[in-house]
Amino acid sequence: MTSISIIGSGKMSSAIAEVATRAGASIQIIRRSTSSSSGDRPNVTYGALGDELTGDLVVLAVPYNAYPSILEFYRERLRDKVVVDISNPIDFTTYDELKSPADSSTAAELAKQLPEGAEVVKAFNVNLGDTLTAGTNGTTTTTVLFAGDYAEAKIAVADLIEASGMRAVDVGPLSRARELEAMGFLQIVLSALGKTRNESGFTLLQ
Amino acid sequence: MTSISIIGSGKMSSAIAEVATRAGASIQIIRRSTSSSSGDRPNVTYGALGDELTGDLVVLAVPYNAYPSILEFYRERLRDKVVVDISNPIDFTTYDELKSPADSSTAAELAKQLPEGAEVVKAFNVNLGDTLTAGTNGTTTTTVLFAGDYAEAKIAVADLIEASGMRAVDVGPLSRARELEAMGFLQIVLSALGKTRNESGFTLLQ
To answer: Which of B128, B145, B205, B206 to mutate to test the interface with A (most CBs of A within 10 A)?
Structure first.
């Protein structure tokens, strides 16, 4: 069975926990504080920042600008993990540009900072949270686009997605994260403009 | 009534001619040679490279690397036209990168080269030709994403799209062409990998 650690406790953390629940995965959520909250899931083990990561898959469900502080705690402990980068590094003051280098991506920059053995997969960044929670995008099954350089890591992510009842589409090597981040940015802009609902958005039709 | 000149005679030229036909537009197609062919449309006026452009909208339906030779003929004559850039400047030897500058787009680079008065709109580059010809993407109405800096130019393009029975979605200023080109690139890669059919592809669900 897949095991997953989700670092972060915002909307995307919750959406991915729901995906992992549908997939029957063993789930850990790492948050700032250990205190329980009324929204806690019975099937999730909660931990605090700095606690050991129990999942083989580790999802960074925090804003891009929180990556440095997460890496302070976990850089070495991400060795031999599949690290899932879901970020859309948008400048939210202007909604007019990505903060990642124009010829790169958050995912590729993250990969450079991790120890050997950590395998980065870009995934879920072109999905608004509600489409993951529901498993549907408009009237279709939610499609999750992902990219990465390591076959086994990609299979693990695809298995999680498909076990949760969604469709997984491999778009290629981690260098394609640049295009996934452009798409994620565009979708968030369209969402902010009211041109897509929270329950729908971009998809790849069959 | 809208009038449109389409420069180029390949698959996208034909697809956009079909869109313009459905929209009831007056259509001119500019091609290398004036000789007629069996596929000629009765509702289209054909011209040769160098002939006057009769359309208010001018679609560059040629590969990106043919732009310099088109501009030799037409740069000055694009003044006061709405210039529609549909290109996906992919390196087709590797399918691994865009040829436009990483922090810009074909559309933005084109705009810099045109005389004042020419108004560039990026459109149709995230649509595989068959989805324009049919007006459908999978089981949905085809959605055309477009970007530009001039309101009237964008309205003219949106009117053409909607009069043809498709859905037009304004994604913002011409700087968003960078993201549209990333999306177009990704779609062509997925199409080449057999992960989308010619009759479907990316869309924005409602």
So the answer is: B205
Locate the chain B residue with the closest alpha carbon to A168.
B195
Domains and CATH numbers, chain B: 3-192 (3.40.50.720)
Q: What pLDDT, in 10s, does the model give residues A36-71?
A: 788 899 999 999 999 999 999 999 999 999 999 999
Nearest-5° Cα angle at B100, B99 to B104: 160
d(C-alpha B183, C-alpha B202), whole Å = 8
Task: Give the residue numbers in A contacting B (CB under 8 Å), as ranges.
Answer: 96-97, 102-103, 137-140, 169-172, 175-176, 178-180, 182-183, 185-187, 189-190, 193, 195-197, 200-206
Task: Say what the ipTM of the complex is.
Answer: 0.95
> Can you tell me the distance from the alpha carbon of A187 to that of A126, in angstroms, rounded to the nearest whole number?
7
Q: Environment class of residue A70 by beta-carbon count within 10 Å: exposed (0-12), middle (13-18) or buried (19+)?
A: middle
- Per-residue pLDDT tens over the stretch B161-174: 999 999 999 999 99
